[in-house]
Fold this protein.
Amino acid sequence: MIRLQSLLCAQMHQNYASKVLFQPVSLVINGNKYLSSLSSGNIDANDVAKRSLENMKIIIKKDTNSTNNKSSILNAKDWVHELHLNGTGYLTLSKKDEQLQHKSNTTTVAADSNKKNIELVLVTSSSNGSDRHQTFIYETLDTNMSKSFDEYPTILDTNTSLQNPQCTKTSPLRWRNFALGDIKLRIKEAVEAMRDFALKHNNQINLPESDKNTYLNALSEAEKFIEMDVMVTSKKDKERLFNYLQLPSEYTSSAQARVALQILNAAMSAWIFNYPMMKQNPSISQQNDKVNQEFLKLSKELYEAILDSVLISSIMSINKPVVFKHKKVTTERIEKYISDTYFTDANIYGKIYPLINKDAVSLKVTTEKTDRLSYNDAMKLSFRDCKVGEVFGPSWVTYWFKVHIEVPKEWKGKIVHFLWNSSSEAMIFKDGIPVQGLTGGTWVDKRIEYKLFDKVADGGELVNFEIEMACNGMFGVGKDGLINPCDETKTFKLERAEIAVFDEKAYKVYTYLTMLYDIAKNFPEDSVKASQAIWCANEMINHLNVQNSQTFDVVIEIAKKFFSLKNGDSQTVVTATGHCHIDVSWLWFYAETKRKAARSFATQVLYMDYYPEYKFTQSQAQLYQWTKELYPELYQKIKEKVVKGQWFPVGGTWVEMDGNLPSGESFIRQFLMGQRFFKKEFGEYSKVFFLPDTFGYSAQLPQVINHMGIRNFMTQKLSWNNINKFPHNTFIWEGIDGSQVLTHFPPANTYNSQADVKELVESATNNKDIERCNHSLMLYGNGDGGGGPTIPMLDRLHMLKDTDGIPKVKFSSVDEFFDTIEGCRENLLTWIGELYFELHRGTYTSQAATKKGNRYCERELHSLEMIMSLCDHYLGTSLYRDHRNSLQELWELVLLNQFHDVLPGSSIGLVYKDCYEHHQKVLQTTKKLIDKTLEVLVSHISPSSSTGSNTYVLLFNSNDFEITRTLEMPVQTKTLQKSYHGQSLQTVTIQPNSVKLVNLTTMEATKPQVPVTLKESELDLFIQNQYIKLTMDKTNGKIRSLVLVNGDRELIKHGEYANEFVLYEDIPLFWDAWDVEIYTQEKPIQKPKSTHVPKVLESGPLRVVLQCQFQTDENCVITQLITVNHYSSRIDFETTVHWKESRKILRVEFPTNIRSPNANYEIQFGHIERPTHFNSSWDVAKFEVCGHRWADLSEYGAGLSLLNDCKYGYSIHNGLMKLSLLRAPKAPDAECDMGTHNFTYSLYPHDGRLQDTGVIAQGYQVNSDFYQSSCFHSDNANLEHKQIPSDKAFITTDKNSVIVETVKLAEDNNDLIVRVYESYGGHAKFHFVSNQSIDHFTEIKECNGLEEPLSTHSTVEKLTLSNEFSLTPFQIKTFRFIR
């Protein structure tokens, strides 16, 4: 079979009055032009072509060298299997079992003894008489013809055999004789038949006598004209002829129309040939007698023959217009032809749905708005009739619809779509199961179509399903802008609810034109590819008649030729994987995210049924967990797709968390809970850490990733940097301990790729490591608010799979991509340290209450796990085991709220109401369980706590440091000092990770060796202990001087004040809650002033406490308690701020005279150095950085640490230390940080390196308190606490630099998990130390973060407390203690 695509098409011509369209292309077989493809709104060109082929012969000559050199002559009409000449350009020939198959595209074919070939040539004539040819070689599949051809088939008309037009110029007359031979014969025969019939039946034909005579004379005249070569020169005659046949007026001025005019002139001399007139003549058409019916039939045949001559001769003779060099105009022409806004009545976009039926859909809607209900609960509600145009709201409510559809019977065989646009998000349910999400509105991510049937309609079907409509858009309900605060009164109009016929071919034309337009716009203007794309698209439009769908095949084939040109081996390979980035909260809250996940997941599962080769990647265990709980049937489908290799869970974490703010243990738990979920539900751990959208990446992440069994990392956010461009896309990322992960940043610089030409090309052109690794990853699909890939995205990638000049597309998974680039590892460069994000620096400070809640929850969960482990191991209780599920739930809440738009502070206000409730639940539950555990411990110490002569309290230190505190006693004791609350003060020291029993009755008032003192002068307050001398200006409440006693070293810059509050203007370029810009540093606008002289609340000897107050106006009121204890150089600033500012940032500043090119900042499981200068643009970009519990600026012999209990934003440059306290952005939460805040920051002066002077321990101390039981009474003689060693470490180490960070129960059994890290940045050897006997733990196994023993350990070797262990700088290790 031959399927011949007409690629050399000429310009369409359209007569807007008659809608007659022509699409001229010549067909030449073995050098002889014969037939042209054509289309007409009024003429059935198939009939024309078939009639034309009646007398066509195909002559096949066998090999001339053969002894049997006979010719086979086949009638063309016997070979006609299928003709599609109405604009499609297809000519299909076949006979019985003999078929023609496309072989190659060449003008030369070598003789082949095993193949029989046929050569087809397409020719288009040009104005200068030359012809353009395109040759196709086909081979016959007839096995009976064993000899090859050296002469190929020739198509001849019945009268003439012409020379090859490639060799000889031919005149219009010759072409007339050639091309119109059979038409001429038909006309001649028809005229003769008409004449003979008229003469024979003259008396029976029902026409006026005068008309009969005119008719007979005209027939004779016509017969003469057919035999003549007379030119028509009369303009009047031309117009008459063309008007008669309703031909485009431009034909009348074409010299090449003479051939048609010659024949038409003859025919028109007998106007009676106008068959339509005759048919409409009642005197004829109403006659039923045989004579008049036969006369009508003959008239029709003659009319058709004449009209065929016009079509064919005109098509052959008209020149193909030349495309002019007007690229910009042509490019815009293409753009308008695919526009969904302009000219949709005349462009191809408007033809994708040629038939729409609004009446076929009937709707019912719930009578009242609802909350988020299950399907079953929703179906119990009452419903009313509903129509398109109704408005629903307000924001965040839900409506359910019942949809009934009656498919028209005449739509049988059609692809039918349901179209729904409620200007909001929605979800279709069938039989109670989500089947597809819908996204309304007008954004590019809208998804309003749903395919009703797997294939085509049978016609007459009745379809029923339900729709859950959410009164919010894909990006929430922002008021007049994407990231603006919520409009709680927003409404949503039901714009569409209808069915439509989907024209697949029009859609393909639209898609091809869209891609060509993308090439034209995104390749360099002077590039060959852009020029070729413009040419191809223009050709398509020139050949396209949007009113005639039969032209679509022609232009599709034009496009296919362009996109079928293959790439070379050197072209970049882009691994394309579908992806749906769902922010678990952002411009919506958690309850809506659960539905977003279902909408997105259901859609992608459905698309996997449409495209079996489609591969999709989805991260975040939390989303799977919600889906499992709320939509179990959908979740089961997901698991089936995982098994089939279409759906790939990825990431390894519970949520895609922030990469800066969570603690080290939180990082571990993100992976621990995520990886265990993936293993349990899908059978394997994730191999790739998948974090596409977060606001910076801790330098400790590579080690954490490795520790959790992952070696690969994917992200892309650094492409948003606003100062420096990150230099790599594929590289090795090395953490502060030396751990490495293979890392890739998709060069398209998005995790929401639209799978278009632009982003495919950028996947190569943006790849900064392309010479090292010629592979890129593309994550395509609508995201942030969910959705995922659309059908057009999938289709574009398939069409672009291997197109010359565009990267090759490989449909694969993220895992397979990293397996591929692993082979490039030895060529890659290494980046050491943090991946600092040069944008969104305001996220270190925004939503202060959430950051405080997170820090406190992390602290309390750490303490709860420690004390329950301690209690169970001391007493043999099962507290931890009994509350394992509760702990799991609490961790889930904390990890959930560490999502990268929640913890950073960049979500709407409703999110932070959820977050506050979650944090409060964690804090209240942990307090309750810690109190309960202390009660259990107390009950074992003193079975009866209600009687006795002594009063006791049990204290618990959950940190791996000996900590000393000045405490307010729960009852009055002997004391040297009372607090400003009137309570007795005592100094208490507790060993690491231990409980301490304190007898309040016998407690002595021990005077410190060096007390802290307070002195005053007229202008200043002087506070001194054995470590520091602090001077405060009484007139403004600020620090004038801070001196280290050892060495008498002043730390404050001369002439300046420390602990000074400064308000800066804080107006970012766009991302309000996200960004603090560099120019903010340039514009301090106000310094809150002291409202009164510092008030002395306590004056020693245990501690000095001062109260200060600062104020700008009622919008910023700051109250501070400044505390200096006798046992430490640390100064604590317990601060309360009433904050009502707008677009300002509050910082506290400490100008020092310390000179150092770098400052140290605590991060997870360690610390890093950052520059304090602006030598380079990379240094300048770090004008605001993230630190955890402390930052330290030190020179030899002296240093100053700035500590805090819930802040993260630091700036240390040129000796000036700043801590960002509060911001006041107005979007997306207009009330961000408004209200009252309580927090503590501290100064810790020291006279040595931070490693040697307890800076790290001070950070832990500022972020913790001693836990205290209720008081109980007992006699010393009855105290039974030997089971619980007092003030002895449960588990610690013998090395100061090695910190026991976590003690918990194993996830799979009752073993004890102990996690440690090296904190100084050096090598360390250590032993574990426990107040338990060495034999209490029978074995210690080193594990990974998933608590699995490392395979490197011999099963014979048993490690115990007596063994020595080692750590490299900042290394994390996890051990399993087995009892």
In short: The longest helix spans residues 909-941. The CA atoms of residues 203 and 1244 lie 126 Å apart. The mean pLDDT is 82.
